[in-house]
Amino acid sequence: MKQFSSVNHNGVKRGATMNRSIVRIGLGIVMGGLLWGGLPANQAMADLVQFNFSGAVSHVSTPLFPALNAGQTLSGSFTYDTATPDSNGSPSIGRYNDAITLLSVNLGPFAGTLGSEGPGTGNNVVKIVDSSTDRFELRAPLTGSVGSNDALYFRITLKDPSGAVFGDTSLPTLTTAPSLSSFATDRFRIVFENGSGIAKVRGSLTALTAVPLPPAVILFGAGLIALVGLGAGSWRKRNNTSPSLA
């Protein structure tokens, strides 16, 4: 008995047309995710966690900062990769070098982003301390300037003297991130430098919230799933239709 394949008006098998359509859709989703979020492919599927933060300035070194003053509002966000390995062997201290992938800091006329210091410098790090006093520490190189003052780095320090916040030294995920109210002390610091020396902006955080992954990452994953599914279907079809050897 002959078997017939469905053919469109151009003489092309519908199955082939559908497969090409799925490929286009999958690739479109992947590329759309990358372009939308600006994430390279090797980061888009990583286990990224993003936090939004805000704060209030309590101290500014003078007279270096006529444009910045106490009482101004800080805002921004940072993202780190929870797949980053722990470089510290201590069971009570986790140190995650180069874990921070994105950073934005806004304060008055200042707008800074993650600096480009090379890996292994020790300035891009997240540290988790699980002991009698639990601590979360983040330090990241910072770019941007106010007048002649160039930003050097940004730092957040959270402390809980009861030791009840963390159960281990792993990086908090979207579902395990503690609330800001869990810590008795919450501080931020921005360090600048100019020809006259080092200047600092200090204050307390008013909010720190973990937020879901950006849509770009979800789109990227959906596109890959579509392509992988198509590949598996094509493999099964070829396997089922291959002639057997006598």
Give a brief rundown of this model.
This protein has 246 residues and is an alpha+beta fold.
Provide structural commentary:
With 246 residues, the chain is an alpha+beta fold. The chain has three helices and eleven strands; from the N terminus they run ααβββββββββββα. It has an eight-stranded antiparallel barrel. Helix 1 (14-37) runs antiparallel to helix 3 (215-241). The longest helix is centred in the C-terminal third of the chain and has 27 residues, at 215-241. It is globular. The model is unreliable at 1-7, 29-39, 41-45 and 242-246 (pLDDT under 50).
Keywords, separated by commas or semicolons:
246 residues, alpha+beta, disordered N terminus, disordered C terminus
Global structural class: alpha+beta
Strand content: 35-45%
**Number of DSSP E strands:** 11
Strand order of the largest sheet: 1-2-4-5-7-9-10-11
Taking Cα atoms only, what radius of gyration do you get, to the nearest Å?
Answer: 25 Å
**Termini Cα gap:** 21 Å
Largest sheet: 8 strands, antiparallel, barrel
- Mean pLDDT comes to 79
Shape, per Cα inertia axes: globular
Order of helices and strands: HHEEEEEEEEEEEH
Stretches where pLDDT is under 50 for at least 5 consecutive residues are 1-7, 29-39, 41-45, 242-246
Summed up, the helix count is 3
Helicity, as a percent range: 10-25%
